[in-house]
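Subgroup meeting minutes
Present: P.N., E.W., G.H.
Scribe: E.W.

1. P.N. recapped why we're keeping a running log of single-chain structure predictions: easier to compare across weeks, and new members can see raw inputs and outputs side by side.
2. G.H. added today's entry (177 aa).
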Amino acid sequence: MQWKIHGERPIYENKWVNLWLTDVETPDGHRWEHHVVKLRHLAVAAVVNDRREVLMMWRHRFITNTWAWELPMGLVEEGETPADAAAREVLEETGWRPGPAKPLIYAEPANGITDSQHYVFRADGATYEGPPTEKNESDRIEWTPLADIRGMIDRREVVSSGSLVGLLYVLMDEAIR
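Output recorded in log:
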């Protein structure tokens, strides 16, 4: 059952978030305006070293007032590929230059309200280049053993969807290797 789109219009736009009203018709014939949040796409990087550790950042998110571990991630810039964005974000946020990025998984979190696309990559290995250039991203940067990740998720020490999707896929991938 596919919904029909009769049109859409922006109500608020800026470089971070755009709110649109979309004129939709459901399969039962009901027609109404649905709010849609349009966001730039996100690139996430799971960097795994040869000791089976993943590069993580401990950070505060003011919106939910929570501290948690996250994978490096950020918005894909105009003209940039998601893989290039993932590598750039790792370097900017952690100071580590990741090995070649390989697509890990694609996700659309909350696709009933937003068009956000998350591209998650895996990079095996990284070279330390120096301190992060993004000074406001995290309090700590650590290589975390993959064996600890499940417990961290269970204790809600990892809560962002981009990190959860990436980490769970890495764990699944490692289990079948």
